Amino acid sequence: xxxxxxxxxxxxxxxxxxxxxxxAREAFNAGNFNVAKQEIDSIKILYPKAFEARRQGIKLxxxxxxxxxxxxxxxxxxxxxxxxxxxEKIKDNFTFEKDEEYQDIGLYTIKRQSxxxxxxxxxxxxxxxxxxxxxxxxxxxGSYYIHHNRIRLSANDSYVDSPVSDDRHEFTDLGVCxxxxxFVNGNDGGMAAFIAANRDAKTIRYTVxxxxxxxxxxxxxxxxxxxxxxxxAIAQLYDLSQILLSLEEHKNILAEAERHLQFIxxxxxxxxxxxxxxxx
Length: 280
Hints:
The chain folds into two domains: 87 residues; 154 residues, no CATH class. The chain has a six-stranded antiparallel sheet, with helices on one face. Strands 6-5-9-10 form a four-stranded antiparallel sheet. It is elongated, with a radius of gyration of 30 Å. It contains six helices and ten strands, in the order H-H-H-E-E-E-E-E-E-E-E-H-E-E-H-H. The chain is α+β, with helices and mostly antiparallel strands. Helix 2 runs antiparallel to helix 3 and helix 3 crosses helix 6. Helix content is 50%, strand content 22%.
């Protein structure tokens, strides 16, 4: 009687678990993957000894995960292709520089903003690397150093302040003091985005702040104007940055999905479902 009762109980457990499995299959076929997963989890929680139902549930879970990764791969492949097409349409607006011997990642710039074409001019220039990371450089020149370490941009009754940066290169050439203050890899406090948002402005107020080298105890600031050409150049570089950042993000998601799919298929090939149902 005890043996018969045990067999009867086991059969009832399997039948009750089978209902959840049927619900999971129905949800999977309808594309409701989360519901299907919840039903499979219910089998493990409510009927831990329903080994056959759990084994089938594990197989179905693997099928769900495989389908999810295939969908992700399909979507991300389309996104990568679309973003690359957008990049191809604008890439000729930029100069690409890369020293294959010394640089792993190349840089996109706009030729009219290069330091060699702007000697002695105070302005902000930009560059974007192949990963989409944007750097702004404030170029100051004068008869003395101001050791500037921050910037404020103002336009249309709004403004943005840069963070303080110590990434400054200073040098003297023919009695002229030069300072290049860099805000690297997008750490600019939103200045590039601010310029892009005000790309239709004729000028943007540009204030550099630091310390007068002739009187180190005195704070120093000077108001300048960022002209239309520089505004347009930085806005274009910002757009490029957003495209390349998005491209990198989708490429990484795609690569991760492909790795996950390979792992899932290796597990399916090994068929661990029966062992997992017994040991979990």
